[in-house]
Amino acid sequence: GAAVDRRAGRHGAGALGLRAQDEDGELRVGCDADADTIKEMVLEEKMNPLFLAPENFVIAEQDGEIFGIGQIRPIDKAWELASLVVVKEARGNGIGTAIVQELLERHQKKFEAEGKGVPSVLALTLKETKPFYTRMGWMEQPMSMAPMKMQAEASVGGVVAALTGNSLICVKYKFPSVELDSDHSGTIIKNINEK
Q: CB within 8 A of 28, min separation 6: which ones?
């Protein structure tokens, strides 16, 4: 009805009718039935086909067809955004952004629910895709700051990237810290001073 028409107008018709911001169940958690599709999509993009646990993935889907995938996975003692793929015909419609935002939101909620600080998330990406990440608040960081497993993956991936005239970079998303919130820290200082 009207809600669908309004969303279509705000975000464009989207590739193949898929609109990233629809609230009618098009972003979902991966399941075992998605394993083969995930692996095919990752291999097609010449990405690392290892560590593809479907339950780590967010899937963008419409009418049973998968248009995009992505995951946040543990790597050493860090977290990595990985395996982000949107099918070529659907690119440029906000699907990748919606997947990344959903993954970051789930990551944040998981750690907040456990009463823990939310660890930053790292990603290896092609230098040409850096603007995609910086628009969402990610910042480039030296590859030497990445966990050793990521550095090893980067050296292998760098060879593949170089064949296409590209280079790999490391980007980081840092969640806002409650401790650094001036309202909260001011309250704590005030309480200490009152005693």
A: 58, 59, 61
**What percent of the chain shows pLDDT beyond 70?**
74
Nearest Cα neighbor of 170 from 107, 99, 121 is: 121
Per-residue pLDDT of 111-151, as tens digits, reads 999 998 999 999 999 899 999 999 999 999 999 999 999 99
Q: Strands 78-86, 121-126: parallel, antiparallel or unpaired by DSSP?
A: parallel
CA–CA distance from 113 to each of 103, 109, 118 (Å)?
A: 15, 6, 10
DSSP 40-79: HHHHHTT---S---GGGEEEEEETTEEEEEEEEEEETTEE
**Which among 96, 99, 138 is positioned nearest to 121, based on CA atoms?**
138
- The structural domains of the chain, ordered by start, are 2-194 (3.40.630.30)
Contact 158, 168 (CB under 8 A): yes
pLDDT tens digits for range 86-111: 999 999 999 999 999 999 999 999 99
Q: Which residues contact 16 (CB under 8 A, 6 or more apart)?
A: 62, 65, 67, 89, 90
**Cβ(45)–Cβ(74) below 8 Å:** no
